[in-house]
Specification:
Layout (H helix, E strand, L loop, with lengths): L9 H12 L4 E6 L7 H15 L3 E6 L5 H25 L3 E6 L12 E6 L9 E7 L8 E2 L5
Parallel strand pairs: 1-4, 1-5, 2-3, 2-4, 5-6
Helix pairs in contact: 1-2, 2-3
C-alpha cells in the first residue's frame, strides 16, 4: 500500500520511514555545507515523519571525535534539537526525543521509536546507515534537492 505525501516534506518523510521499516537501514540526514535550515523546516519534517511512521521519533545526533570547536558547535546544535523536540511535542503532539550518540542505532522495527540520525559530511557511518544528503545543488543521483521558498 502506497502512502501519499500530504505535506511538502511528505516525500522525504516517506523515504525516511521506508528506509527504516522496509530496508532495515537507519536514515541519516546530511546537510550540505553552507546550507542552513530553519526551525520551521525541522518541525515540519519531524511532524511528517511521525505522521508517516505512526510512532515516536528518536533523533540521534552523531558525535564523532572532534576538536573543541566542533564539540562546542555540536553542543549548541544539540540544545537546538532538544528545543525543537519540545516544540514538536507541544505544537504537533508528537513524541520526539534527542540523543547524542557515538554509534548510530539500528532500526528496531515498527513497535519501537523510528530512529532518524543527523550527521555532518565528515562523519563516517556504519553499514546499516543510509545517508540522505540535503542540498540545493545535487551532485549524486540520491541527493535530495531543496528549493528555497520565496
Amino acid at each position: 500500500m502506497d502512502i501519499i505525501a500530504t505535506s511538502p516534506l511528505g516525500g522525504l518523510a516517506q523515504r525516511i520511514v521506508h528506509s527504516c521499516d522496509q530496508l532495515g537501514q537507519t536514515p541519516v540526514l546530511e546537510v550540505a555545507p553552507g546550507l542552513v535550515l530553519r526551525d520551521a523546516f525541522h518541525l515540519q519534517l519531524l511532524s511528517a515523519v511521525a505522521e508517516q511512521a505512526g510512532r515516536p521519533v528518536r533523533l540521534e545526533v552523531l558525535a564523532g571525535d572532534y576538536g573543541w570547536w566542533q564539540n562546542w558547535l555540536l553542543s549548541r546544535d544539540l540544545k537546538r534539537w532538544r528545543r525543537l523536540a519540545v516544540a514538536a511535542s507541544e505544537l504537533a503532539g508528537i513524541d520526539v526525543t534527542v540523543e547524542r550518540r557515538m554509534v548510530l542505532s539500528r532500526p528496531a522495527g515498527k513497535h519501537r521509536p523510528l530512529v532518524l540520525a543527523i550527521a555532518g559530511q565528515e562523519d563516517s557511518f556504519p553499514s546499516w546507515a543510509q545517508p540522505l544528503r540535503l542540498t540545493t545543488a545535487p551532485t549524486h543521483l540520491d541527493d535530495i534537492q531543496l528549493l528555497a521558498a520565496v
